[in-house]
Amino acid sequence: MSLINIKIEGIPYQIEDGQTILQAAKKCGYEIPSLCSFNNGECSQGSCRVCLVEVKGARGLVASCVYPVNDGMEISISSAEAVAARRRSVELLLSDHNQFCQACDKNGKCELLHVANVTDARSGIFPGSHNRVHLDEVAPGLVRDTSKCILCGRCIERCKNAHGLGILGFEGRGFNTFVAPAGDRSFSDSPCIQCGQCVNVCPTGALMEHSEIDKVDHALRYGKKIVIAQAAPAVRAALGEEFGYKIGTPVTGRMIAAMRRLGFARVYDVNFGADLTIMEEGTELLGRLKNGGVLPMITSCSPGWINFAEYNYGDLLPHLSSCKSPHQMQGAILKSYWAKQNDVAPEDIFVVSVMPCTAKKFERQREQLKVNGICDVDAVITTRELARMIKRAGIIFDRLPEEEWDRDIMGTYTGAADIFGVTGGVMEAALRTVYFKLTGKEAEPVEFKDVRGHDAGIREASLDINDTTVNVAVASGMKAARILLDEIREGRSKYQFIEIMGCPGGCINGGGQPYVREFFLPNEDDDILETYKEKRAAALYSEDERNTIRQSHNNPQIRELYEKFLGEPNSHKCHELLHTTYAPREGYNELKDE
Questions:
Q1: Taking the CA atoms of the chain, what radius of gyration do you get in angstroms?
Q2: Helix spans in 313-401 (H)
Q3: Which of 71, 292, 317, 494 has its CA 20 to 30 A from that of 378?
Q4: pTM over 0.90
Q5: 3-state SS string for 239-298
Q6: What are phi and psi of 68, to 5 degrees?
Q7: Distances (CA, A) of 358 to 111, 193, 200, 277
Q8: d(Cα 240, Cα 126) in Å, to the nearest integer?
């Protein structure tokens, strides 16, 4: 890309062409406040007017997030007119904003407060009427509160860019404009996949996960059940960010110690459930390959992807693996085998899953996942919710000892399970076991790096295993997944096995993970918005590499579970506990009368 010359505050700089003023200024060492621009380039077309700057020769102030640089441009960020305009824009936003900040879950990570401080904006400058509040607390995964919405449009863009969906949009006109699913429906009455990507980019608390902390609190403090926690691999790769650790720092031992101090009777790793999932899913794939089953088979670990499939590709549901996701499988084992071994009634066990995902909150309530009318999992809290519970309890995370998972019955896991939290990880873990099942020997090297990646898009590989060619593909984000699904629908798919993850990058970038904002991470690298998924993924790959057992079929406790309780993979008992069904769903339910 060619270089051009610009001036900022009269100082000359040479930068790459093709950037916006906002991007160029950042690389030259300037912070221009912005609320509608995010993720190092995604933008909702300059709607917030917080990033106004002066450009010599322009007819007025320009929105730096959408205005391209050109050779010879002279930019003033600190002119009196630009400073006053930015302050005025923020004060107008504050005038219609719910300012009960102490009661907001986004307190401490609110970008509106950040830009108010940067621009020296004050509340109460523009008193007057407030817009009508639209509050949606119906959906299991997400909450929408328009009293905190600043109409920046980020959530609208994120839904379109990640999934090609456009669930959210602007409703009403003028002062009465607000953001909602079509017709001001609840998330539960729209084809929202509950992934939480909109929550991840919301600059205020207008979109949040539907918290289940109160439910967990009640179980821990007042209930008579045995409360068991289980945590997904992606959680340990990100939880430290909430306590000042650099992105990509695994905090497994301290996380376990914190959960014990919160009062959980047992603390287990969902990696055991991931190994179990590979045994079931790998066996299911081999059965389809040998017996002429429906191909390609598609993974079923991501509840956001499952929601998308049921809403948009009901005709392709037979392609999905019937396996439950790992935390649901593990919950089912806790309430059957673990309960039997510990002489506890299944209904006396309360399972809490700590997940990087908001869609898991919806998943745990599915009727198809109940066994004898009992839910596998009773509550789901996100990585962020766990951090809030730890901070609220007064636990100094840095001073916690490194503790180990509970090891009875389901305490052993393999490196294959560690990588479930990264897009391509489920595929790679499955291939390690499928290779062994087809050849009778372990793959050398053990890694299948062709399916690795950290961003939305499609990766593919072709493997020749014991005279059997297996064509595989990996996609994350529904925009990429739709390409593969349309090929299947049109009869053009060349694959036998496909992994699909709802969130771009996989679980490491789930809707319940810590927010990544440069100005809240002063000790991080300058390119953190471009590399945070890679850094979180590296934490999981490093755990895989350190593990002495790296294939799910070599997990001794998994073998013991089959020998003593489940029988063979895909047995009748396995289908009773570990498998499920899917059904097409209507995208938009009828609007209810107010």
A1: 25
A2: 326-333, 339-341, 359-363, 383-392
A3: 317
A4: yes
A5: HHHHHCCCCCCCCHHHHHHHHHHHCCCEEEECHHHHHHHHHHHHHHHHHHHHHCCCCCEE
A6: -75, 145
A7: 21, 10, 11, 20
A8: 40
What DSSP designation does 320 have? B
The distance between the two most distant Cα atoms of the chain, rounded to a whole number of Å, is 79
For residue 335, the SS3 value is helix
Q: Which two tokens stand for residue 459?
A: 């990766």
The structure tokens listed for 75 are: 């930019």
Helix axes 271-291, 326-333, angle to 10 degrees: 110
- Please list, in sequence order, all residues whose beta carbon lies within 8 angstroms of the beta carbon of residue 58, skipping any fewer than 6 positions away: none
| Apex 500 CA angle, 143 and 413, nearest 5 | 90
The enclosing H or E element of 37 equals: strand 37-38
Report DSSP letters for 177-242, one per residue. Answer: -EEEEGGG--GGGTT-----HHHHH-SSSSEEE---HHHHHHHHHT--SEEEEEE-HHHHTTGGGG
pLDDT per residue of the chain (594 residues) written in tens, 0 to 9: 699 999 999 999 999 999 999 999 999 999 999 998 777 667 767 778 899 999 999 999 999 999 999 999 999 999 999 999 999 999 999 999 998 898 888 998 999 999 999 999 998 898 888 889 999 999 999 999 999 999 999 999 999 999 999 999 999 998 899 999 999 999 999 999 999 999 999 999 999 999 999 999 999 999 889 999 999 999 999 999 999 999 999 999 999 999 999 999 999 999 999 999 999 999 999 999 999 999 999 999 999 999 999 999 999 999 999 999 999 999 999 999 999 999 999 999 999 999 999 999 999 999 999 999 999 999 999 999 999 999 999 999 999 999 999 999 898 999 999 999 999 999 999 999 999 999 999 999 999 988 987 666 899 999 888 888 899 999 999 999 999 999 999 999 999 999 999 999 999 999 999 999 877 887 777 678 788 999 999 999 999 999 999 999 999 999 999 999 999 999 999 999 999 999 999 888 766 554
Single out the residue of 499, 430, 440 nearest to residue 279, CA to CA: 430
- Domain architecture of the chain: domains with CATH: 3-94 (3.10.20.740), 131-209 (3.30.70.20), 214-578 (3.40.50.1780)
The three-state secondary structure class of 323 is: strand
Please state, in angstroms and rounded to a whole number, the distance separating the CA atoms of residues 594 and 591.
9
